[in-house]
Amino acid sequence: MCCSLPFSLLQPSRLRIVNNTLPKISLRSLPGFGHQVDFKTQLLVESSVPGQPLCQQVEVDATILVRDTWTPHQNALNCETVDMNTHVRPRVPVLEEPLKRLLSNTLKDLGCNIINAKLKVLSSLLGSRNQVLPLGALGDLPSFSILSGDAIQVDLNLLSENGRDGVMPPTQELPLSASLQLATGRRPRLSLSQDTLSALLEQGQGQGALNLSITSLAGSNSPLQGQVTQSSSLTVSALFPFIPQLRVRVRDEPVVAVRDGRATVTLRATIDVASPALQTPQGLLFSVDEDIVLNITPSVSDGKLQTSLALDSINPTRFPQSLDAASASSLAEWLKKVLTAVYVPSVQDALRVSVPLPNVLNTNLRNAEVAITDALGNSAA
Length: 381
Hints:
The chain has helices at about 95-105, 110-125, 195-205, 235-240, 325-350, and strands at about 15-20, 25-30, 35-45, 55-70, 80-90, 145-150, 150-160, 160, 175-185, 190-195, 210-215, 245-250, 255-260, 260-275, 285-300, 305-320, 355, 370-375. The chain is an alpha+beta fold. Helices cover about 20% and strands about 40% of the residues. The chain starts with 14 loop residues before the first strand and ends in an 8-residue tail after the last strand.
């Protein structure tokens, strides 16, 4: 026995479904006929066939054709499943045919049940007293899951609009996945995954938005002047007249993490300290390697998803060997001030991406809550 879970179903075929994921469902209207129901889930299947015990996780895709007819004044939906096509991956010969037979019996009435459930959920969400709404009146939903009698979770593909015209052609933009939970009496809840946040930042990195040349450090109006402590060795303050420029270069892809209810991104960067007055290649004085950790805060404003960034910390990974401990500490504090005052606002402006949210079920998403899910799908906000 590979597992012992509360949900199990013993069948004559000696197969037992011991676990399943929340199904993803899509409906497509077939005018004059009914609907096509696409059903996707993952199953953990146990076989007790003598000599061939198996415990296999499979992905099941089922396409169900449903003939349904009704009028808005009917009290019940006339519905019939007329065809079903099931695919199981990966192919396991000893499981495939028995599992298909099991699913055929189990899913026979599923298409009609899904349509009925959709009608009830939509009626509840829309506050309708008529439990029988014309399905076509609201159009086809994207992929969704039924969470309860008055709540659904809709899968969304969002396309970003970069705030800087001409930075990236629309054909190069990748869809961003998200899920939207709609429930009666509660604010809409938009859930973003780590992968979606990573895609946003990687898109910005591809545009060069994470790399920055800072050329106004030595001016008299710099907010950083006079904030560096003196020491007897090579000091940052002593170098101020010779350091008109920093170059921040992000070496690797941004690493997004979700922990303790917040999302952060780590940028592994090299910071070149340079001055044209120096007789060195590109005026380079020295370089340091830093892990720049930024807090990511997504929000919804005016019906669009936006993200804001703030410096969390910097973690030096390489300093010039010529600096003693005091100078290295002073340099780290100075770099943190530079990044806070100049780098983060510049990157925030360059990454000012707004993602229009679609109109789903006539729901106003202007006040939607935003949650972040980790790699395992756990909500982190």
